[in-house]
Design a protein that fits this description.
The chain is of the alpha/beta class. It has helices at 3-46, 132-147, 149-155, 173-183, 203-217, 241-259, 280-283, 299-309, 320-326, 332-348, 356-381, and strands at residues 51-58, 63-67, 73-77, 90-93, 100-104, 117-119, 162-166, 187-192, 221-226, 266-272, 290-293, 315-316, 354-355.
């Protein structure tokens, strides 16, 4: 082997070693970065979470009165370098000694919006059939004070703060509330009574308070509480902590009702299927003292509701009087279901028109469904 060839072999070996060393160094560097990242992750997981609290009062340069979400208040200190803290600010505190460690810009938006439906309804009085008397009463009690409050000031009377709608399910109670909200251009705040009964102490009362704050902020507004009997049932001997929490929530609701002025632009509409179990405190004068019964529609009401729901349908050979008689005893919701089912029968046969046979088949289907639900109910609770 010549000297030149020996040098070439040595050069190739050294070059290969250099390349291999460089790759190992890169891999080692990458592994070190991965290890450091994993250590940081482990440290982050081991760090105890901080709690959010609201500053109620400044007691000194580094001493504050804070309030936690559960309603408890504590006198605490703050770490250095946090900056200026004023009442109403939100801060992060340690779980063990509740020392303030950081000030945060927590949103003051209403948390209650997670539990309620806030909307501007488009429902009009024309969409309601068979409830002329109920519409008139609601217009007098809710619509007139919101539109013309000066009339009541001139006469010298105070309009009711709210009303109670009661009657069987599906008779149009929610529809009435949405229609009056639309006619007065009010914000419609809908909440279910059972949503207000929270499992944590003080949460239900806090929700009630925030609902009324939200209503005042978005006024004119209407608070519609469906299934209000879940909140305002007759009070009994308080045994469990859950029952005591319901009572606290109910008392907060009564306090809020008593707290705002009758001529204010916030109205409350309660809705229930069980008026008989309501606590008398909710219906006494000055609260939801105007009670409006919303019954199942009579034959004339059925015709009106039928016309409303079939206004955009193409009917062929349909005797409205005959079909209406066959739907006697049905609620408004059931009549709407009949119209929807009749449309489905037409669609299944690839027709754009709805016939008498479609409606008759739909009535049978809805009635059969109601009977099946009744049997299931009796099997469970009978």
């Amino acid at each position: 082997m010549t000297k030149k060839s020996d040098d070439e072999v040595i050069e190739k070996v050294m070059y290969g070693y250099t390349v291999e060393t460089s790759q190992l160094e890169e891999e080692n560097k990458l592994l070190k970065q991965t290890v450091e990242h994993l250590k940081a992750e482990v440290k982050r997981f081991q760090t105890p979470p901080l709690m959010v609290a609201e500053v109620k009062e400044v007691m000194g340069e580094a001493n504050f009165l804070i309030k936690l979400n559960n309603g408890n208040e504590f006198y605490v200190t703050a770490s250095t370098g946090i900056g200026y803290i004023s009442p109403g600010d939100f801060v992060l505190v340690e779980q063990k000694n509740l020392t303030i460690v950081k000030k945060i810009n927590a949103s003051t938006a209403f948390n209650v919006e997670k539990f309620v439906i806030v909307e501007k309804p488009q429902t009009s009085w024309k969409d309601i059939g068979g409830l002329e008397n109920q519409v008139t009463e609601i217009q007098e009690v809710i619509e007139l004070p919101l539109k013309k409050p000066e009339l009541f000031k001139k006469v010298g009377i105070q309009p009711p703060k709210g009303i109670l709608l009661y009657g069987p399910p599906g008779t149009g109670k929610t529809l009435l509330a949405k229609a009056v909200a639309a006619s007065t251009n009010s914000t419609f705040i809908e909440v279910v009574g059972s949503e207000l009964v929270q499992k944590f102490i003080g949460e239900g009362a806090k929700l009630i308070k925030e609902i009324f704050q939200l209503a005042k902020a978005k006024a004119p507004s209407i608070i519609f509480i469906d299934e209000i009997d879940a909140l305002a049932a007759k009070r009994i001997e308080m045994g469990t902590s859950g029952e005591r929490e319901v009572q606290r929530t109910f008392m907060q609701f009564l306090a809020e009702l008593d707290g705002f002025k009758p001529l204010g632009n916030v109205k409350v509409i309660g809705c229930t299927n069980r008026k008989d179990i309501l606590d008398p405190a909710i219906t006494r004068p000055g609260r939801l003292d105007r009670m409006i019964h919303v019954p199942a529609p009579n034959l004339e009401g059925i015709k009106q509701i039928f016309k409303i729901h079939t206004a955009k349908m193409k009917l062929i050979k349909v005797d409205e009087d005959n079909i209406s008689k066959k739907m006697e005893g049905m609620s408004g919701a059931e009549i709407r279901a009949v119209c929807t089912e009749a449309g489905y029968f037409a669609i299944r046969q690839n027709r754009m028109t709805v016939s008498k046979v479609d409606f008759e088949s739909a009535i049978e289907k809805v009635l059969a469904s109601e009977q099946a639900e009744g049997k299931d109910y009796m099997a469970m609770f009978g």
